[in-house]
Amino acid sequence: MTATRGLEGIVAAESKISSIIDDTLTYVGYNIDDLADNASFEEVIYLLWHTRLPKADELAELKQQLAENAEIPQAIIDQFKAYPLNTVHPMAALRSAVSLLGVFDDEADEMTPEANYRKAIRLQAKISTIVTAFSRIRKGLEPVAPKPELGYAANFLYMLHGKDPQPIEIEAFNKALVLHADHELNASTFTARVCVATLSDVYSGITAAIGALKGPLHGGANEQVMKMLSEVGSIENVESYVQNKLDNKEKIMGFGHRVYRKGDPRAKHLRVMSEKLTALTGKPELYEMSVKIHDMVVGQKNLPANVDFFSASVYDSLGIEHDLFTPIFAVSRTSGWLAHILEQYANNRLIRPRAEYVGPGMQKYVPVDER
Ligand SMILES: CC(=O)SCCNC(=O)CCNC(=O)[C@H](O)C(C)(C)COP(=O)(O)OP(=O)(O)OC[C@H]1O[C@@H](n2cnc3c(N)ncnc32)[C@H](O)[C@@H]1OP(=O)(O)O
Ligand SMILES: O=C([O-])CC(=O)C(=O)O
After folding, report:
1. Is residue 163's pLDDT more than 90?
2. Which GO terms describe its molecular function (predicted)?
3. Which tens digit of pLDDT belongs to each residue from 307-342?
4. Which of 185, 253, 266, 307 to mutate for ligand 2's pocket (most ligand atoms within 8 Å of CB)?
5. Which whole number is the average pLDDT over 5-10?
């Protein structure tokens, strides 16, 4: 038995949800470029959960279900108020809140496909409210109730900022949600599938996935990209900052990918949005710095930008706090996690690989006072 480091190249599941072949990403056979330009996030949710696009009445029904289920238990709001709000990371708050949602769902352990689908709706509806409520509570503001007539992307921005978003903001945020929704067997999705393959419940699966997404090698990279842009500060500093990191063999966040080699097809959409939004908000330098960093990393390391790189300046331009970037990734990826969880339940087998043992050979137990 020989271990494959990081399970690279190991095919660990069959899936009908998304595929990455030759650097092309598709959701159920639809090219991500097509979906990014045309689809609403709600259509993508339906696509991932049903493996087909919804008809108009099905889409209307899903939107209504999401709107009707957006409210969160008061206990979560009370918990947030009791947290050490100056120090707690919103991903930790989100992880705990999703776990708590399970405590308050009397169907949590009901394992029929119908009950699991109802939980998927509830989770997708509530996760947006959780993230926005947390952001407001830590600023000493009351959470804003969602407006049922707004779509998912618009509602998120409305609940976050307490005012109606502009059409360009809705377009950018919807695109970001579409682009982040699913990505085959990435670390957090694999985590969710491993968890529920024990026949544990949906809330446990999503809580586990949030924990995996939080790390800076995965979803946490988008916040780190913004930290880097803030540290760089101006276009003049890019060269020395990046060169220093490259010379010291430090990783540049937002670059590289386990699966893509030539490039991440989602990055170009975020790059276009970043250019548009930074110009509109009067911060074009943020985009220009990003491009300069990009050109240096590609030029010297031949490492293309991943989805996290240009999303940072997009979210910053939407007035979003930097530590909410990864929770927003989770809001979108919840749709993919849920699709994979439902797919796992539908054809389940326990996921249990082996380890190559590299420790000492057989040893004889020695009583503690003789060691
Ligand atoms: C949504 C997502 O999760 S997308 C990924 C988000 N994560 C990041 O942006 C963090 C930065 N990137 C990385 O750490 C990596 O590229 C990962 C984690 C995404 C992929 O990791 P792996 O496939 O395991 O590649 P690994 O880390 O082994 O890197 C291979 C080589 O490229 C280098 N490399 C990879 N990414 C980077 C980077 N961002 N900056 C500098 N060098 C890098 C490594 O140092 C390594 O070099 P070496 O062979 O000389 O030691
Ligand atoms: O697929 C991966 O390894 C990382 C990921 O989630 C993504 O790129 O969206």
Report:
1. yes
2. citrate synthase activity
3. 999 999 999 999 999 999 999 999 999 999 999 999
4. 307
5. 96
Pick the residue whose CA is nearest to atom 25 on ligand 1.
258
Q: How many residues are recorded in the chain?
A: 371
**ipTM value greater than 0.85:** yes
Confidence at 261, pLDDT banded by 50, 70, 90: confident
Class of domain 13-216+326-346: mainly alpha
Q: What spatial distance separates the first Cα and last Cα of the chain, rounded to whole Å?
A: 33
pLDDT tens digits along 170-182: 999 999 999 999 9
How far is residue 247's CA from residue 281's CA, in Å, rounded to a whole number? 34
- Name the CATH superfamily housing domain 221-317: Cytochrome P450-Terp, domain 2 (1.10.230.10)
Could you tell me the residue ranges of all domains in the chain? 13-216+326-346, 221-317
- pTM, 2 dp: 0.97
Residue 153, ligand 1, Cβ within 6 A: no
The distance from CA 83 to its chain's CA centroid, rounded to whole angstroms, is 23
